[in-house]
Amino acid sequence: MDSNKPLSASAIISAKKKAVFRFLLLQIFLTIFASLGIFYTFSGLYGYSFLLGALTSILPSFYMAWRVFGYKGTRSAKDVVRLFYKGEAGKLIMTALLLSLVFLLIKPLATGAFFAGFGLAILSHWLSPFVLKH
């Protein structure tokens, strides 16, 4: 017998947390798959450049998800907003740092493939409502 009781706040948060991390893992899986395809189709230079570009976008997203959803239970609205601001600030700083490190330390780098991976990882967030819905 199904009950029509609404979900508790902690159950909703837990479901969203799982969905967000599932989406980020899907992003990493698709990035690795695409990088391998580029690696074998074009060359290793383009493959690892694409992978680095995508990871430069995805890793800071993991950080933000961890900052926002890395707690148990419910929080006040004020605390949630504070966590979002801290997470977004950390994400921006981490993105800038990763971009700088890649351009300083990785030689050779196919910048076109790097920015293609970076851009596609960012654009893939547009698909998140479809993935998170299920």
Question: How would you describe this protein?
Answer:
The chain has helices at 9-41, 44-69, 77-105, 111-123, 128-133. The chain is mainly alpha-helical. It has one domain (9-133). The chain is elongated and about 55 Å long. The two termini are 23 Å apart.
Task: Give a short synopsis of this structure.
With 134 residues, this protein is mostly helical.
Mean residue pLDDT: 86
Structural class: mainly alpha
The domain count comes to 1
**Spans of 5+ residues with little confidence (pLDDT < 50)?**
none
Instruction: Count helical runs.
Output: 5
What is the H/E string? HHHHH
Rough shape?
A: elongated
- Using the CA coordinates, give the radius of gyration: 18 Å
What is the strand content? Answer: under 5%
**Could you estimate the helical fraction of the residues in percent?**
over 70%
Q: CA-to-CA gap between the ends?
A: 23 Å
Give the beta-strand count. 0
- Main sheet? none
